[in-house]
Design goal:
This protein is mostly helical and 303 residues long. The protein has one domain (7-284). Helix content is 54%, strand content 1%. The longest helix is centred in the middle third of the chain and has 22 residues, at 145-166.
Length: 303
């Protein structure tokens, strides 16, 4: 690093170098968690969740170049690039390159770099994800129906994982004491909430219909999506919009149904299937009620 370039310009340069290299993207993300001087022991544990999700994208092939026999996804590439660029810029700023931060999301990553807590990590990571979703809606519309459906599933799950550490009453109701442990990105449990490989094949583009993929989803994933997340979707998006300072996120949900690159008229796909197990989860974990001040959970105290 030299002081001749801004932090934003340096970050853009790093990302450009690996744009068509999925393995290079992964390596760049790994380096971000090592800090500007290659030694950041407090940040390294957070790398687990980021690389777990990144590895799934690489296996699917969505980060491949957009030209060639098996092109990658312009939309997935753009979302991943936003996370990388924001993270690199925060590294550069903390390493002494001039700023200020070029975006709110880069500033959120800088806040995480300065005070690495679980809540700060989610605010940075999900802030970049949501910003990329909103910025690249046009690219999302160009994907096939099944891919667009699972874009919404991914968004629901990353937002929900955030509430586990920052709004436990919203995420798990009477089981809220367990929520911070389940959602901590430094622990292995977080990968369960972000993992889609048990539902989606490791290939791109997706074949089959939305229904065929839903019918193949069994076990924890089905209970999580339809038993826990779907009943609290509207509250989840409203809380996340405030937490991330991203009011545009509210345009991605309507009356409790995700509508990111997805027509509201096709909301039936979000209706829970008939299942005794799902009904039992609904009874055991009813959605929390908003207080008069709109609060749904206590913030973490430094975890």
């Amino acid at each position: 690093m030299t002081s001749e370039v801004t932090a934003a310009a340096w970050a853009a340069r790093q990302v450009a170098r690996v744009r068509d290299d999925p393995a290079g993207r992964t390596a760049l993300m790994e380096r971000c968690y090592s800090g500007p001087f290659g030694k950041a022991p407090q940040h390294l544990p957070f790398r687990r969740a980021a690389l777990s999700f990144m590895g799934w994208q690489v296996r699917r092939g969505v980060l491949r170049p957009t030209s060639g026999e098996r092109p990658g996804s312009p939309w997935w590439r753009a979302v991943n690039e936003r996370i990388l660029r924001d993270g690199c810029e925060a590294v550069a700023l903390s390493g002494g390159l001039p700023g200020p931060a070029s975006s709110r999301t880069a500033d959120q990553w800088l806040s995480f770099a300065e005070r690495p807590t679980a809540r700060a990590w989610y605010r940075a990571h999900n802030g970049s994800v949501v910003a990329a979703y909103l910025e690249h809606r046009g690219l999302a519309e160009a994907e096939n129906e099944t891919e667009r459906f699972f874009m919404n599933v991914v968004l629901c799950r990353v937002l929900y994982a955030h509430t586990l550490v920052a709004a436990p009453r919203l995420s798990l109701g009477p089981l809220r004491p367990l929520a911070p442990f389940l959602g901590d990105p430094r622990l292995g449990m977080t990968g369960i909430f972000l993992q889609l490989s048990r539902v989606l094949p490791d290939e791109y583009p997706l074949g089959g219909t939305v229904r065929s993929h839903l019918d193949s989803e069994i076990g924890f994933g089905r209970l999580l999506d339809f038993g826990v997340i779907v009943p609290r979707l509207q509250q989840l998006y409203e809380w996340s919009a405030l937490e991330l300072s991203a009011p545009g996120l509210l345009d991605c949900v309507r009356d409790g149904s995700p509508v990111y690159a997805w027509p509201f008229e096709d909301r039936r796909v979000w209706q829970p299937p008939r299942s005794a197990a799902i009904r039992m989860v609904h009874r055991a974990l009813p959605p929390a009620r908003l207080t008069s001040g709109g609060s749904l959970g206590r913030p973490d105290r430094g975890g």
